[in-house]
Amino acid sequence: MRVAITFEPTGLPGSVPVDRIQWTVDGTSKDPIELSAAHQVDGLRAFRDVPAPDTSPGGSTTMRFTAVAVDVDRASSSEASVSVVVADPRPLPALRIGPRLMPTSRPTADPEVSITLTASGVPEGGSVRFLFANETAVRAALGLPTQGFRDTPRYERAEALRQAGGGPQRAYSAALPHPVGAVGGRATATLRFPAGSNDLILVRALPVAMSTDAAGIVKETASTPFAATRPAFVAVPTSDAPGLPRISAGATPGRRITVDVAVPHVRTARFGGGSVEARIVQVVEGMPPAFWPEVATLVLDRRRGDEWTGRITLPAVEWARVGLAASVRFPAEPLLAPGAVASRGDLVASGPAAAEPAMRAPWGPVGAPAWLELRGRAPRVHATVEADGRWRVEVSDLPPARDGSPGFAAELYRGASALVLDSVHALDAALPSFTAGPFPGDAAAVVLVDPFGGRSPVFELPA
Asked: Phi and psi at residue 280, in whole multiples of 5°?
């Protein structure tokens, strides 16, 4: 670097001529500047070159310069000094960008989604400038088709744009008003984008070196050239779901239920192939369908055209009324092209979705349920007469009680000539018996009522 040293004579009568100017750099003395008789009249402006300190691209350091004038009598003037911030203007190296798509947060009722990105390897005291561009704008700038491309998987579209250079700078805008400062070499920013778009979002992160001059003003001293950067590809997870599925169910021998699911008109090309998935839920009366408990999931197979079907066998219980419904979702969308190597770059996304191999689609709405009445073994009635003349009625092979489901009941009839209903007794495996009577002069009988309202043959109580 070049240093200018200026001497201006006082021009006062009787002043002592100045012999030399002694100067230092960061406390190290340099060769003094000798002054001639002409300099005593015209003054001096001398330039000296000194080596700049070693810095990395974008780095900076402070240098202190001092100078004193020494006259012929060896008297020295007061010291003049200045501190200068020396910044390395060489461009900063570009961040390494991995090939994976980076998913944003899942779309909700908010019109925007977000993604938190962290850039590492930023120079100490530096910042990162984030730029973004919409896929359609980049395609237009590159002369690529801007219609009909959305049926192609996004990882394929990203690779094509990466090979084309990611688009010119004019297609990009600032994602944030100001560069984000780095702490410990890492700069973290949360970016927000419109939700519900199938377009890719291209993000470029440009490291910026900052320095503070002697006046305390922060200035940008170096940055990564736009042309040296590579874009990261951000994708908003789909909020789409296939249409409503059809479900049918039937009981099979061995206490099993066979469930068939079908959903028509489902195209999966934009997800890179894969299979449609179905989710089987059990209906709970009085509960919103979104909270019905999951019973099983299954992968559907493509049949004719764009129809997908699947079958699953589930365990069944006896004497239960079961409602089953289904919802479906698109295949998971890969974040990386098949065969590509998932290298980790200097720009990474935070959150659990960033570590997944694919973006899972949301489940669609639940279709109309299929209902089954699962019958079982017929319980058997036994009755004995107690010593006091009462009857003790016991029923074997009863199913256990189930919350929210009707169970078995015993209707007790009595009378001298015609029998009329006397009482009803709820029964289950934990409470299989009851006592009745005595009814002097009356006959009595029991009829079992199953959970579906069916009635057993009359069982006459012994006299």
From this structure: -95, 130
Give yes or no for a contact between 23 and 65, defined as CB atoms under 8 angstroms apart: yes
The number of domains in the chain is 4
What digits encode the pLDDT tens for the residues 302-311? 887 789 999 9
- Chain Cα centroid distance, residue 40: 75
Same domain membership, residue 251 and residue 226: no
Q: 49 is in which domain, residue-wise?
A: 2-87
Give, in order, the Cα–Cα distances in Å from 186 to each of 79, 116, 383.
42, 13, 82
Domain identity same for 262 and 164: no
Confirm whether 95 is domain-assigned.
no
Q: Are residues 367 and 256 in the same domain?
A: yes
How do beta strands 33-34 and 18-25 pair?
antiparallel
Q: Amino acid identity, residue 394?
A: E
Same domain, 304 and 326: yes
325 DSSP β-pair partners:
281
CA distance linking residue 193 with residue 417, whole number of Å: 83
pLDDT tens by residue, 163-188: 999 999 999 999 999 999 989 889 99
